[in-house]
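User: Can you predict the 3D structure of MerR family transcriptional regulator? Sequence below.
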Amino acid sequence: MNMKAFSELVGLSPYTLRYYEKMGLLNKVQRNTSGHRDYTNKDVDWINFVIRLKDTGMPLSNILDYAKLRALGSCTVEERQDLLEQHKENLKAHIELQLNHLKALEEKIFLYKQKKVS
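Assistant: Sure. Here are the predicted structure tokens for MerR family transcriptional regulator:
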């Protein structure tokens, strides 16, 4: 699929996709006979995974580390797993912190509602 279709499918601008390609997150993108990018379903799956990692707060530098390991093949499975497990722990800690913030907000809102009743 061409850049426009791929961009619309994954929800990223062509500029972002070219940036990801330049930095090494999207490598080995196929080209058609005219030299235009020709994305595959594997590219869609990969970019969706990158988006998920980014949405969960993984820094692009860590995502790039993961991508470099992925490009090296199956001999890096354990390193990739370690990277994801570390991110999982960071994400769990972040969620816990956000839940604590939510609880504090709910308590404050409850106090304001009590003042309106009295």
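The chain has a mean pLDDT of 95. The CA atoms of residues 2 and 36 lie 7 Å apart.
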